[in-house]
Amino acid sequence: MTWTAPKIDRAVPIEIGTERELLESTLDFHRQTLLMKCASLDEARLKIAAVESSTLSLLALVRHMAENEYWWFCEVVDGQNADDLPYYGRDDDPDADLNDAAQDDPVAVFERHQASIAAAKAAVAGHGLDHVAEHPRTGRSSVMWVYLHMIEEYARHNGHADLIREGIDGEVGE
Fold it and tell me: What span, in angstroms and rounded, lies between the C-alpha atoms of 138 and 48?
């Protein structure tokens, strides 16, 4: 039997709650939306590039967002050591998360994405929304801003994912 990306039961974001609950619910919605765009596709289809000249594929987007989860929540907000985080990027190719996806095992990619979300949630849990993180590369960012940035990052890439998926099998998103 050929592996296919799992189907996702996407939860609708809440509309009433604390600021943190609203941010987390909306971010989870967008996390699930990316995975929903991949649902039921096999390895070959997950690796289809958006256009011939690009390395952007659904699998590349999942890798990229796993990397963003670790970067923003674990490294920037929580101050974890980048050398200890499982990044795809390398010194010789900081965009390896996108560029090397065609050689990766989708099962491992999806597992890493889920691990990155769990690590991100654990990393941010100890910091209030007004906590300001200092990072030598990105400067100062509040936890609130990081949540908003990640929602924007997923939303933008979910648009890419929607177009890629439509090109693969005609499936259109919502």
Answer: 32
For residue 67, the enclosing domain spans: 19-169
Q: What is the CATH number of the domain that holds 151?
A: 1.20.120.450
Would you give the distance in Å from CA 64 to the centre of its chain? Answer: 6
The verdict on residue 126 lying in a domain is yes
Question: Crossing angle for the helix pair 58-69 and 106-125, nearest 10 degrees?
Answer: 30
Flag whether 40 is in a domain.
yes
Q: Residue 149: pLDDT above 80?
A: yes
Return the beta strands (E) in the chain as ranges.
132-135, 139-142
pLDDT value of position 122? 98
153 in a domain, yes or no? yes
Average pLDDT of span 18-47: 97
Q: How far apart are CA 74 and CA 153, in angstroms?
A: 16
Instruction: At 159, list the tokens.
Output: 């648009």
Reported pTM? 0.95
Number of domains in the chain: 1
Q: How far apart are CA 104 and CA 90, in angstroms?
A: 15
Find all residues with CB under 8 Å of 125, minimum gap 6, and list them.
Answer: none
